[in-house]
Amino acid sequence: VRYAVRTLARAPLFAATLVMTIGLGLGLVGSAFTIFNAYLFKAIDLPNPRELYVLIWETEGLRPQRFRLIDYEALQPEARRLAELAATQNASFREEDVTTQGLLVTGNYFEMLGARPALGRLLRPDDAAARGGNAVVVLTHNAWRSRHGACPAIVGQHIQLGRQRFEVVGVTQPYSNLAGQELVSFYVPLTMAGAFPGDDPWATPDSASLVVIGRLRPDVTAGVMQPWLEAWLRRRFPPPSDAAPTAVRLDSLAT
Asked: Crossing angle of helices 12-36/2-10, nearest 10°?
């Protein structure tokens, strides 16, 4: 040990470089494990997650097309015999040079997932009954721990999100987020879109900003749902519509 200390003391630059390299290597390994752990080893804590899919179609421009609110409202009742559908839209805001990401969701979102709260309750259909009507928020378990110190009294408190204060009504269970939602910190009703920068489906009805996800019925497979969805989209957006589908698919949200 004394020899090693004397050797490092004679070459402090080498010693500092060695320490930094080892530290960087450990940090990269830790980050890689976190990512692989989240994506590959931690199961999504939702009932039958392999029944959950995102509905995607591409247009002539070879880019994924999103839904308008009127498209989602037209599709939902027609698809009911095959799947239960919900819609989401990204929501984010900056505060003190920090961007916070969340999701605007339809009132049936958590019911469709079959999710359970860790604290309080999750969003319900009556929370999204009217535009701008109910400023409530559900925090993700990670955000509750990292940003609110896992405070057990968080339910009932009001926090600032975007342009408005929201009442915290619940916290999600750990690992109940879908694939691609690892950075989401909160869920609010889609009817509160006006509180955040970006598209408001009611103020800009022609804007295609919604992602539609669905839980297939137990006797329905993606191979059955996909051609049905493609036929529905071709009827709704026949050529020469810019939204005419060129490819339609269902992507699993379980992985």
From this structure: 110
